[in-house]
Amino acid sequence: MNMMKNDVIAKEDLKQIIERIERLEEEKSIIAHDIKEVYAEAKSKGYETATLKDVIRLRKQDVHEREEKQAMLDLYLVALDMK
Amino acid sequence: MNMMKNDVIAKEDLKQIIERIERLEEEKSIIAHDIKEVYAEAKSKGYETATLKDVIRLRKQDVHEREEKQAMLDLYLVALDMK
Amino acid sequence: MNMMKNDVIAKEDLKQIIERIERLEEEKSIIAHDIKEVYAEAKSKGYETATLKDVIRLRKQDVHEREEKQAMLDLYLVALDMK
Amino acid sequence: MNMMKNDVIAKEDLKQIIERIERLEEEKSIIAHDIKEVYAEAKSKGYETATLKDVIRLRKQDVHEREEKQAMLDLYLVALDMK
DNA sequence: ACAGAAATAAAAATGC
DNA sequence: GCATTTTTATTTCTGT
To answer: Are B4 and A46 in contact (CB under 8 A)?
Structure first.
């Protein structure tokens, strides 16, 4: 792990790694920008950004996982008189 | 805020918006994953992830901004006898 | 906003600010440690950490707020045939 | 993992655990809030939050560690002709 | 422009 | 000790 510390760093190799990451981050930020545009457009049609985001979030959760988690959770809620 | 609540929501329109966002988010997360892979690969070659991130961060700031920030930090450090 | 940059920094004042923050952060990390201990103790009695955390999270949500949010969300879900 | 699922949960015991954690988390969040206030107050006096955080971070690292980190960073920067 | 909330990134802890 | 998951910190976004 500390190999690089004592070695000469392979300049070209490092440069390539850095530039690859920077290119990917650039692409990522372009997409983030695109997403913002979609929200802005939706908002101008009368949709609420916050609720659209809620829907997206909810759809992301895998249904099966949600049910499994719920089963155990219910048990605890009953024990706490919250259900 | 409550306009949509009282209107009929244009189902197909909403669906398209949601799906467009989801597609873009999917692309974004693939790229995020690619970035992680580059770091992992770099690590396996002996580079330190934390330092690579430091470099990326430095390169993102432009030179002038970086100098300003450092100048301010130095000022504080001197005041605290840390420099 | 850039006032401090051109002024001499009031050394004692800065020192006090820094030390106040450091003291608070120290307190915070002691409490974080205490929380970890409670979980560890609970775990040793047979409780699942993950589920305890779920319960804590759920109780944090204000019930009223949850219902309000749900009402609007339902509308969208119906529109999307998810409900 | 599933032991608790098949047992009767000791209601009072569980309640106490949950409430103990909640009390500690409440304390923790009060302190977090206090810290924010200190930063806000400092900001209103003309200090820069970002720089204060830099100082705190530097003081947290011990000298040796800081030097090691900087040495590694310099190595990378030199290889990239950034220094 | 700023405060507050949400999302992302970084750091820390846990389990293997 | 590494890798995955959780927690914390930073950044970004949104509404005022």
So the answer is: yes
Q: With a 7 Å cutoff on the CB, does A63 touch strand F? A: no
Q: What is the pLDDT of residues A40-83, one digit of tens each?
A: 999 998 888 988 988 887 787 665 566 666 766 776 677 677 76
Contact by Cβ (8 Å): D48, B72: yes
Interface-testing mutation among D76, D80, D82, D83, with chain B (most B C-beta atoms within 10 A): D76
**pTM of the entire structure?**
0.79
Per-residue pLDDT of B7-43, as tens digits, reads 566 788 899 999 999 999 999 999 999 999 999 999 9
| B38: nearest Cα among B23, B59, B53 | B53
Q: Which two tokens stand for residue A68?
A: 């499994």
Which single residue has its CA nearest the C1' atom of nucleotide F3?
B40
From chain A residues 6-65, the ones with a CB under 8 A of any chain D CB are 9-11, 14-15, 18
Cβ–Cβ < 8 Å for D21, C39 = yes
Against chain A, the chains showing at least 3 CB pairs within 8 Å are: B, C, D
**Å: A14 CA to E3 C1':** 41
Question: What does residue D7 show for φ and ψ, rounded to 5 degrees?
Answer: -95, 160
Residue A77, amino acid: L
How far in angstroms lies nucleotide E16's C1' from the CA of residue B37?
22
Structure token digits, residue A81: 């008189």
